[in-house]
Amino acid sequence: MTKKLWFLPIVCLFFIFGWAAPSASAGAPADTNLYSRMAVSTAGGTTLFPQTASAVITPSADTDTYYKEASGKSGTALKSALHRIISGHTKLSYSQVWNALKETDEDPANPNNVILLYTQESRAKSKNGGSGGDWNREHVWAKSHGNFGTAAGPGTDIHHLRPADVQVNSARGNMDFDNGGSEYPKAPGNYYDGDSWEPRDEVKGDVARMLFYMAVRYEGEDGYPDLELNDKTGNGSAPYMGKLSVLLKWNQQDPVDSKEKRRNEIIYEDYQHNRNPFIDHPEWADEIW
Ligand SMILES: [Ca+2]
Ligand SMILES: [Ca+2]
Ligand SMILES: [Ca+2]
Known about the structure:
InterPro entries: Endonuclease-I, His-Me_finger_sf. Residues 1-20 form the signal peptide. Keywords: Hydrolase, Nuclease, Signal. 38% of the residues lie in helices and 14% in strands. By secondary structure, the protein is α+β, with helices and mostly antiparallel strands. Strand 1 (40-42) and strand 2 (45-47) form a beta hairpin. It binds calcium ion (CA) (3 copies). One calcium ion binds next to helix 6.
């Protein structure tokens, strides 16, 4: 009898974990509407970061309307629809970007500080500038990849501009993104070699989703270069960024979090009035690429 029952604990474990695992991944699409955790419409307007648990399960009618044209599409049709939806945004000047980043990247624990992208360090908002110890405006889509500079347009699009330490920004330079290399001493968890930069784990997905946004927003028809992703490193000044296969993995490994959602909301409400579709629907990256 005992010989026949040896497998029962294993069967029990299967039912516990065998069902738990699929439900965790099946939770991903539902999670794409979690930006509603941050934005709750009230009589007085929109409140960011409501503390009530009931807000967690409220689906966002706003994004359903916003993305209506993309509904049911995939591949190039989805990319085109998203491009039409997010184009025509309000463009900031390069000097306006400073103040915008002080709001979008504010340290939730200290309103006097911003969080720096690659180090996740909290630093005084007042230390914006170009000297050692300052933070400046990192173009995650390197501005030399397409040579769009800092004129109003891709060079000032805060969906991909983030505060970074001056020295770390300079070390990343215009590298493409890929795994591997040596750790950069001033930015623990970040790795680099001759042609690529690997950001630390908790911002890998953020970087990927910013680049997905840029490739869809800029299609070459409005005076700006057609930015596209490819599977290479060392793209130089071509309007391309890589490495696409790695970015798609990072999008999975580092899911959208509340800071990213809050940031997207602020850009939409207060500055550009367009959204990063890949923060609202990270699964769309795999449907396009
Ligand atoms: Ca490399
Ligand atoms: Ca992240
Ligand atoms: Ca493009």
